[in-house]
Amino acid sequence: MNTIDAELEGLFNRLVDGIASDADEQQLGEVLRSSPQARRAYQEFMSLHSALHWDYVSALAPEVAGDNSLKSPPAVSLPASPMGWVLAFVAGTIVASVVAIFWPSTNVDRAANENVATHQPREAANTSPKPDSLAALLVDQVGAEFAEGRSPDGVRIGPGEYELLKGIVHLRFAQGADVVLASPARLDVRDAQHTRLVYGNVRVTAPPTARGFTIATDAADYVDLGTEFGLRVDRRSGASDLYVFDGQVNVADPRTGKVLSEVVQGESSRYVEGAVGAVPEVDADAFPTPGAIGFQRWQQHERAMRADDRLLAFYPFRRTADETVLVNTQNEDGMAAGRIEGAGWTTGRWPGKEALLFDRDTDFVQLDIPGEHQGLTIAAWLKLDRLDFVFNAILNSDGYDLGHVHLQLTRQGHPRGGVAVAGQYEDRIVGNSVPLGQWTHVASVLSRETRSHRVYVNGVLALERHWRADQVLRPGSCRLGNWLAIENDRVTNRALRGRVDELAVWSRVLSVDEIKNLVEVGRPGMLGNAE
Amino acid sequence: MTASAEFVTQITRVQRQLHAFILSMVWNATDADDVLQQTNLVLWEKSAEFDASRPFLPWAMQFAQWQAMAWLTSRRRQQQRMVIDDGLAKLLADEALADERAFEARRHALASCMQKLRPEQRELIARRYEPEISVTALAAAGGVTAKALSDRLRRIRHALLECIQKTIAEEAFS
Fold first, then answer.
1. Do A214 and A363 reside in the same domain of the chain?
2. Cβ contact (<8 Å) for A32 and B23?
3. Mean pLDDT across the stretch A478-485?
4. How far apart are CA A82 and CA A77, in angstroms?
5. Do A243 and A298 belong together in one domain?
6. CA distances (Å), origin A384, targets A396, A443, A496
7. Residue range(s) defining the domain that contains residue A383
8. Which one, of A300, A318, A411, lies nearest residue A356 by Cα?
């Protein structure tokens, strides 16, 4: 500002204080157009004006929640329907963006010095919570049950107390911190950057935007400096154990805010009643990752799904002692396991989950889907590396006789296939292609009755095919990730390049809602699905 | 689903910058709140069109620019519309984007600079920045002229700007 004269600064001030004259405004236009320095000063001034409006004011505004912070009637558990969950999530995210400007992001990101988060007015009773304030969103969960009166309002996490009795929840705070809370645990949320762990285990992952994210405990305060760490508060002893997986966490005295220690990657610490203690070895399972939530949800779903007596085959893609066998868990009806040729075991949608990698022209899994069917649904999770050929097979019958089924992708990633029929058929591409490098759910639904084939990509209709001739469905011997070509076919090589994790075949037509549910329960976590 | 979560993160991250930019066009903080809300809604509607491989802020900023221009037009602020025309709006947006890192640094510096104000200065700032407050109304309540009050605010803002400048200069050498 040194280079900008006081007159200009006076003009900026009159402008934002609403007392500028027409002449002032005219002068502003002229000076902004002609002088880069004036524009710079103007932007710095406006940034200050904006920051004062956002930060300082909201820092003075009510921020601490009391027991009455949850306005809504207690919801003891989360929506039972996973689809309700999806809708709630989407609704929640929209609300989040709209109320974003009212977030009381207090304390203006304290730096990593001695003056870290003072542990003040935890019980400041002079304020009532803002009804619209939102500190975090509940973005994922498995088996979550909250205590009555200490539960979220849908997916919205405002200031207040939350007690998780069962399950695991993943909270994403407004400034980007991800917190995975494992039951039993109790969390008192103050705002987007300040939370108190009363007891239980949390795993925190904080990006640079959430620098200064602080978890308070009775024994100490933990200030995140861009890290991943696990924190446990023992319910009985009140001891706080910190395990820093990456980056640095500052441990501060809860009363004075003075930094007691700086704990870096690979280190751990224990504080109990203001003193340092011996910290136990880390138990990695005690601090679930966001990905672990998805894996557990899928495992729970798997049990329910297998109860469907129209489920012909289910290949969960779990490696066994014989690495060439793709186990079919529904093998009572004589539908055998798949035989793995070439494709290699690799990691799947979540840590600890496996998949098969199809990478060479000769890689495939030989399967058999016996019988004649009126309806069929074939669903798989895949993650493509490339689309090398005109057609890239997901699951094709060997050859192309009447009644055989094909499910493949074009070079552009659009689904292609259906059932081999006599006469004409008509394709209509209506939706998205399958992207490269992302776990994607593809479901193929064939119906003899309606003479139609529909392919859904992540639960959204992508391809529709109709034909005229009546044709029963006879998949028979099939290859996953490849095709046993018929002689003289001009598109011989249809090898898939990428991973497959889960394949299911039903002898019926699944509804769109059922397919969307498969996507919901089988999707990778909100984090940790990238490579 | 992953896209939504990513979008939430992105849209959250850029709120302050969008607000500061909108403020440079509409001047009044409460009006800027309104325009920012409209911008957020448009961003959500357009979320499917966003190419995640490209930077988020420039993409979001153009919608902020259009929303602010639309607001100026709808308010029939003819004078202001002439001051901030499309060309100047674009210039301000481009320069704000180029200055993204400095924006964060200044925001952090402000926190410590606030602490250096005298208590009565902090209190005046707090009252001035209460939601929906106008300087004219605040001045009337305090029995002073709006100009006199604005003048006091000017001195405080000047102190803050100087402090921020100094803090950043010091950090550059530390």
1. no
2. no
3. 92
4. 13
5. no
6. 17, 15, 8
7. 291-522
8. A318
B15·A100 Cβ contact <8 A: yes
Q: Per-residue pLDDT tens for B3-44? A: 566 777 788 888 889 999 999 999 888 788 888 888 887 887
The reply to whether A284 and A305 lie within a common domain is: no
The Cα–Cα gap between A423 and A448 comes to 15
B98 to B24, B55, B102: CA distances (angstroms): 16, 12, 9
pTM summary value:
0.55
**Residue A529 domain-assigned?**
no
Would you say A134 and A70 are in contact if contact means Cβ atoms under 8 Å apart? no
Closest CA in chain A for residue B41: A98
Q: What is the ipTM of this complex?
A: 0.93
Residues 110-169 of B with CB under 8 A from A: 110-112, 114, 125-126, 129-131, 134-136, 146-147, 149-151, 153-154, 157-158, 160-162, 164-165
The answer to whether the Cβ–Cβ distance between B2 and A1 falls below 8 Å is no
**A118-158, pLDDT tens digit by residue?**
333 333 333 333 334 678 888 888 889 999 989 987 777 88
Confidence (pLDDT) at A55: 64
Going from the N-terminus, what domains does chain B have, and what CATH number goes with each? 2-98 (1.10.1740), 101-173 (1.10.10.10)
What is the CATH number for A208? 2.60.120.1440
How many folded domains does chain A comprise? 3
* Inter-chain CB proximity B154 and A47 less than 8 Å: no
Please, which residues 46-75 of chain B have a Cβ atom closer than 8 Å to chain A?
none
